[in-house]
Request: fold
Amino acid sequence: MKRSTADVVHEYGPYPGADRVHGVTYDGEHVWFASGDRLNAFDPASGNPVRTIEVAAHAGTAFDGRHLFQIAEDRIQKIDPKSGRVLATIPAPGGGRDSGLAWAEGALWVGEYRDRKIHQIDPETGAILRTIESNRFVTGVTWVEGELWHATLEGDESELRRVDPQTGEVLEQVDMPHGIVISGLESDGSDRFFCGGQKSGKVRVVRRPKRNDAVRMAAEIKSTSR
Reply:
């Protein structure tokens, strides 16, 4: 297993009226984060807040290219980001014990915090399609270039882990500095992770570890062949 120390390259926030960060996602232009009773968007280039949506937002957040998905207690809401309207809801697999949320391969991927699991679920029905076991509390979840990453939290320690999406085997671990924890997690699709900072109210940027082209291509081929 490859192991390294996190390279924290930037911090955003805290923002007025949003003293906690739960889920985090990125729509290609703005970073969105959940803060309990609303979703907040900011411009990652300037750090300036640009938008809020008043909606229950208790844990993970995801974006499928068109809609936002947001965990609210024991359900997952599908939200129109233009109007802020909740279009549909499905049950969350953890029944209120859910954490991170990501979109990939036409499905939602949901962390179940204390049960140390990641579920792939049908975005229309909430049916569980696959479950991956972890040996750490699971917070944020994200995909990037065929790689499944999740964040952990044990006490005041957090890690970023790249895992095999079939077996859950840990392939790579990135240790956060002591006292800096991760709640929500999202990739920008390239070399940055946006990491929610829980009660700090901050979103931190962690540089994604570099991988050579051959390894990256193999991961992409493996992902597309499933």
Summary: The mean pLDDT is 93.
